[in-house]
Write a structure and sequence with these properties.
The chain is of the alpha/beta class. It has 15 helices and 22 strands. Helix 2 runs antiparallel to helix 4.
């Protein structure tokens, strides 16, 4: 039994009586024991954040930016340690895990810049005969303490997407990491602590959902930012009271392969977008619409590439498909594949589940009401469908309860612009997959995919509010 890793409450490390044992998705080996926060710990974290806000709201710009850059350097210094931990704890292929650390460091680089450029505007208010001599100036001020709940699939970077903009904005933050992958967030707390972020202004509190519910309901917390399943996210919003809410939820992301597409360019991107990290990404490629004139060539090239996808030990740099996070997730994906097959789907590629592993699976002739088509698989499964009319395929993409991102491969500018205009999604990625993301861009969805936007600048905007100063020059 390993020594339990303590939680981080309002600037102090704390051991608790309740613990959780973490096991590797790859082989079930015990890898760590983590303390779990209780109700008293959550209350102390909230109270610490409230008290720390008196400090963070007055921190000068240079200090917030300087601390963010120290965290950047700390992440890069511990890059391999962090990556190996995510590989073991979440089953993330090591190449993706290393890239995630690099992305997290970039987020803090961008956060430092956003802190330095968090400006307002000056506006004339002498717009009517009754308001001569008046002008207004706006500034953005931090909203206050923030509650953050992050998921297992990007355990570092999606936590950083909440923590880094909070620090740039001057907001204390209490983070509840995913129960499957809490360790990297505790390591992040070590790095932030060493960088000099004010005592009390960060807590990382692994806990049960029941204990952490105070982060949702307590009115002292002024914003709730949640990344996870739609079912949980919308329920949290209902109980969040008057606080602002940002939700990054699920998707069944689609990619369109238009006539004339360079398949040598498109297919490798679609394969990676569909099967990397076993499809456990909310913008993983799930639905592929291929122009009928391209279907035969696409099928041949795509299946040739899928056959080369390596599944296995995530510590192997050549592995693309590692284990799903646990066997329950793998069994669910397996059941959805079997449902589609029972309804008449054709299996172009795939194979039997092996414990936590589901092979890269390609299905055709899938009914549109099958779960693998209309719900979020969150596994290494894609469905392929032909189309002939571009306007009609945009309607098919929109025929979904989700709207996060969509990809469109096309050589026609008018069709790219039509997709941007007509698709009900938060982002349209032209000539790449919907899985493409760089961290500064505004990221979020519509419909069941969420509320608000992440991306460092967008999050800073969510975590601040406009305060107006009106000056009357004619005061005599």
């Amino acid at each position: 039994m390993s020594i339990p890793r303590p939680i981080y409450v309002a600037g102090s490390w704390r051991n608790t009586n309740e613990t959780a044992t973490l096991r590797a998705p790859f082989d079930g080996a015990e890898i760590a024991t983590v303390c779990l926060a209780g109700s008293v710990d959550i209350e102390d974290a909230i109270a610490g954040a409230v008290a720390a806000f008196a400090v963070t709201r007055r921190m000068p710009t240079f200090q917030r930016a300087e601390i963010c850059r120290k965290v950047l350097r700390g992440l890069l210094e511990r890059r391999e340690e962090l990556a190996q931990g995510m590989c073991r704890e979440g089953g993330k292929p090591i190449s993706d895990a290393r890239a995630e650390v690099d992305r997290a460091a970039h987020c803090f680089e961008v956060a430092a810049s956003e802190a330095e450029n968090l400006g307002g505007e000056m506006m004339p208010l002498d717009l009517r005969p009754s308001s001569p001599g008046r002008f207004g100036v706006t500034r953005r001020v931090p909203v206050g303490p923030i509650s953050a709940i992050s998921p297992f699939n990007f355990p570092l970077n999606l936590a950083v997407h909440k923590v880094a903009p909070a620090m740039a904005a001057g907001c204390p933050i209490v983070l509840k990491p995913a129960p499957q992958t809490p360790t990297v967030c505790l390591q992040l707390a070590e790095i932030i602590d060493a960088a000099g972020w004010p005592r009390g202004a960060l807590s990382v509190v692994p806990s049960t959902p029941q204990v952490a519910d105070a982060l949702v309901t307590d009115d002292r917390m002024k914003l709730l930012t949640f990344t996870g399943s739609p079912e949980v996210g919308w329920e949290l919003k209902k109980r969040s009271g008057k606080k602002k809410v940002v939700l990054e939820l699920g998707a069944n992301a689609a990619v369109v392969v238009d006539e004339g597409t360079d398949l040598a360019f498109a297919v490798p991107r679609i394969v990676y977008g569909a099967f990397s990290y076993a499809g456990q990404k909310c913008i993983s490629v799930q639905r592929i619409y291929v122009h009928a004139s391209m279907m035969a060539a696409f099928r041949a090239r795509f299946l040739e590439a899928v056959a080369k996808v390596k599944m296995g030990d995530p510590a192997d740099v050549d592995v693309l498909v590692g284990p799903l996070i646990n066997e329950a997730a793998a069994r669910r994906v397996e059941a959805w594949i079997e449902e589609a097959k029972a309804q008449g789907a054709t299996v172009w590629a795939g194979g039997p589940r092996q414990g936590n592993f589901v092979p890269a699976t390609v299905l055709a002739d899938v009914r549109r009401d099958a779960k693998v088509s209309c719900a979020e698989v969150f596994g290494p499964v894609v469905v392929v469908e032909a189309f002939t009319d571009f306007a009609e395929v945009l309607d098919r993409v929109n025929d979904s309860p989700f709207g996060l991102q969509a990809g469109v491969f096309t050589e026609h500018l008018d069709r790219a612009l039509a997709a941007w205009s007509e698709l009900d999604v938060g982002g349209v990625i032209v000539n790449d997959v919907p899985s493409w993301r760089i961290d500064p861009m505004p990221y979020g969805g519509v419909k069941n995919s969420g509320l608000g936007r992440e991306g460092i600048r967008a999050s800073v905007q969510e975590m601040t509010e406009v305060r107006l100063l009106v000056v009357n020059e004619r005061h005599h």
